[in-house]
Amino acid sequence: MAIERGSALLLKVGNGATPPVYATMAGLRTTQLSVNGEPVVVTHKGSVGWRELLSGAGVRSVSVSGAGVFTGSAAEARLKGNALAGLLDDYELSFESGEKMRGRFLVSRLDYAGDFNGERSYTLSLESSGEVVSL
């Protein structure tokens, strides 16, 4: 796998249409993706002291976080509206290699901050709901 630039990891939000058209979240400086799996332990007396896990079982989820500078883009406005209403929406993560991950996410956290003589910034956290597919 080739080395990729961090700036090429883009978070995009859908427009609510079917199929969705995705718009890039403007102003994002950092983006992080976590794929989580909660294992199902099936260890028994015959495991000889070693933990055994059940393949394909458990709960999987994807978490996305990011931070950036507020630009007032339409994508930022849609994400803010989703956060205030507690709505699930379609999101896409796009990588430099052309790989994409898509799924429905809930904005679990949206923070704004600003300093005197500084820009308005934000941090966000998204949690998946349902399957996240790799394209």
How does the overall form come out from the CA principal axes? Answer: elongated
Q: State the helicity in percent bands.
A: under 10%
Kindly state the number of beta strands: 8
Task: Work out the strand percent.
Answer: over 45%
Q: What is the string of SSEs from the N terminus onward?
A: EEEEHEEEE
Low-confidence stretches: none
Q: Biggest sheet, open or closed, and with what strands and sense?
A: 8 strands, antiparallel
The first-to-last residue Cα distance is 16 Å
Q: How are the SSEs placed, and which strands pair?
A:
Elements: E1 10-14, E2 22-24, E3 28-38, E4 59-69, H1 74-85, E5 88-94, E6 100-114, E7 120-128, E8 133-134
Antiparallel strand pairs: 1-2, 1-5, 3-4, 4-7, 5-6, 6-7, 6-8
Description:
- This protein starts with 9 loop residues before the first strand and ends with a strand.
- With 135 residues, it is mostly beta strands.
- The chain has one helix at 74-85, and strands at residues 10-14, 22-24, 28-38, 59-69, 88-94, 100-114, 120-128, 133-134.
- Strands 1, 2, 3, 4, 5, 6, 7 and 8 form an eight-stranded antiparallel β-sheet that branches.
- The protein contains one helix and eight strands, in the order ββββαββββ.
- It is elongated and about 65 Å long.
List keywords for this structure.
9% helix; 8 strands; eight-stranded antiparallel β-sheet; mainly beta; elongated; 135 residues
